[in-house]
Amino acid sequence: MNIAKKVGAWGDRHHPKILDIIRMILGLFLLFKGIIFFNNAGYLRYLIIDSHAINGSPGTISAILYYVTYMHVLGGGLIFLGLYTRLWALLQLPIVFAAVFFVNITAPYINSELWLSILVLALLFLFLIIGSGPFSLDRLLLTSRNSGEE
């Protein structure tokens, strides 16, 4: 059995139900953050340019802008629903990692969003390991598929 299956099996066995509520809150947070970025794309563009992490062309910056926005909206919604949570947590990690280490940490003022970004990064790592949990579409689809086989 490979490592990913072992981690997945361990995560399925060790998942308190309260973590599903935390997963849903995390998903809603990412969804709303994506909507905020969608409605205020200029601010996100400023954050990307001001971080000096990317000295790319305007096309590269626009591609990153769209990636961040749509990954937060789509990933946040699916993390909230508990559908392919591990995959969407993995896809969110580069964005939140960049937010922590390139955007928030380099701010010249005390930034309360740094702590929020660190918390979101830790929760994404947690759900990457433990998965969706009992109150999720993943579990609902798995039980309906298993009951259909018998």
Word description of this protein:
With about 150 residues, the protein is an all-alpha fold. The protein has one domain. Helices cover about 80% and strands about 0% of the residues. Helix 3 crosses helix 4 and helix 4 crosses helix 5. It is elongated. The two termini are about 25 Å apart. The model has no long low-confidence stretch (mean pLDDT about 85).
Q: Note poorly predicted spans.
A: none
Shape: elongated
Main β-sheet description:
none
Portion of residues in beta strands equals under 5%
Please count the beta strands (DSSP E, at least 2 residues each): 0
pLDDT averaged residue by residue: 84
- Distinct helical segment count: 7
Cα distance spanning the termini? 25 Å
Number of domains: 1
What structural class do helix, strand and pairing data support?
Answer: mainly alpha
Query: Percentage of helical residues?
Result: over 70%
Task: Report the radius of gyration as a whole number of Å.
Answer: 17 Å
The string of secondary-structure elements, in order, is HHHHHHH
Question: Can I get a quick summary?
Answer:
The protein has 150 residues and is mainly alpha-helical. It is built from seven helices and no strands.
List the helices and strands and how they pair.
Layout: H1 3-13, H2 18-39, H3 41-50, H4 58-81, H5 85-104, H6 112-130, H7 137-149
